[in-house]
């Protein structure tokens, strides 16, 4: 909310939120439509882990650190789109189909939307705009917003520490985990790169979006897997491995994008 008030809601934020939301939805449909791809990523836990990135806790701080402030709405927009998809459709995709009604429960869907951190932030901003308090509150919330974002990195580290205390053999990966990791760190950023080219984004805008797409798997995938008691070890393993590998891949992405800027 602080970030949104500081930078304002504009077409760039809306556009990148739609890019993230639609891209993830399209790829989920694509994976489940083609049997060959479905066999590589046979369950929704692997699919979500390969598409939902740690944009809030890691992607935004990285973007703030290395990109111009003018791209912040592209960064936040991608985060909003990702977060909305994860918390709206993630619970429906991961729930046990044998215990739940196959028809879509619109009341539960509405509750999921309202409970989303992204939607709550947007609602809060709209209320502030309604009372014309955006200038005052934007300045007050900007500093705490930045502090919370950077402290969020510590939360990620703590979560990973808890995971590593588990006796699971994290490097004993099955093929599904390997494909999920490849999707998250390599294939998805490449797809978003082509989307940015089609939409004629400039280099800084493309960099902001690709860095978000290239973040490791989100902690939310573990939380949802735990909530529904389904594939918890898979979610934890993919998050752990993608976070480790992203220590190398994210700087490489930033380096390649910086070289492109120089050329």
Note down, in words, how this protein is organized.
This protein is mostly helical and 263 residues long. It has one domain: Na+/H+ antiporter like fold, CATH 1.20.1530. It is built from 13 helices and no strands. It has helices at residues 2-7, 11-33, 35-40, 44-49, 55-66, 72-94, 106-115, 117-130, 134-164, 175-198, 203-213, 219-228, 232-262. The longest helix has 31 residues, at 134-164. The chain is globular, with a radius of gyration of 18 Å. The two termini are 36 Å apart. Residues 97-104 have low confidence and may be disordered.
Attribute tags:
263 residues, globular, Na+/H+ antiporter like fold, mainly alpha
Overall shape: it is: globular
How many structural domains are formed by the residues?
1
CATH architecture title: Up-down Bundle
Please tally the β strands and state the result: 0
Percent strand: under 5%
Give the SSE string.
HHHHHHHHHHHHH
Give average pLDDT, whole number: 79
- The termini sit apart by 36 Å
Largest sheet: none
CATH topology: Na+/H+ antiporter like fold
The assigned structural class equals mainly alpha
Look at the structure and give the CATH class.
Mainly Alpha
**Poorly predicted ranges:** 97-104
Helix content: over 70%
User: So how many helices?
Assistant: 13
Radius of gyration: 18 Å
């Amino acid at each position: 909310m602080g970030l949104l008030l500081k930078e304002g809601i504009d077409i760039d934020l809306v556009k990148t939120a739609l890019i993230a939301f639609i891209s993830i939805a399209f790829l989920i449909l694509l994976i489940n439509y083609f049997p060959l791809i479905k066999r590589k990523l046979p369950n929704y836990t692997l699919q979500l882990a390969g598409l939902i990135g740690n944009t809030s806790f890691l992607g935004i701080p990285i973007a703030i650190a290395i990109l111009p402030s003018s791209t912040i709405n592209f960064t936040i927009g991608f985060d909003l789109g990702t977060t909305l998809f994860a918390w709206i459709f993630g619970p429906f995709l991961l729930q046990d189909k044998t215990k739940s009604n196959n028809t879509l429960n619109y009341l539960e869907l509405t509750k999921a939307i309202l409970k989303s951190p992204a939607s709550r932030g947007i609602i809060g901003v709209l209320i502030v705009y309604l009372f014309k308090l955006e200038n005052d509150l934007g300045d007050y919330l900007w500093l705490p917003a930045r502090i919370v974002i950077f402290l969020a990195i510590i939360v990620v580290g703590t979560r990973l520490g808890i995971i590593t205390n588990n006796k699971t053999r994290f490097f004993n990966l099955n093929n599904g985990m390997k494909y999920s990791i490849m999707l998250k760190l390599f294939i998805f950023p490449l797809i978003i790169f082509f989307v940015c080219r089609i939409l004629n984004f400039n280099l800084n805008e493309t960099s902001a979006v690709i860095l978000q797409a290239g973040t490791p798997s989100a902690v939310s995938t573990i939380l949802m897997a735990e909530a529904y008691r389904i594939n918890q070890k898979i979610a934890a393993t993919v998050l752990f491995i993608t976070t480790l590998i992203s220590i190398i891949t994210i700087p490489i992405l930033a380096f390649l994008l910086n070289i492109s800027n120089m050329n």
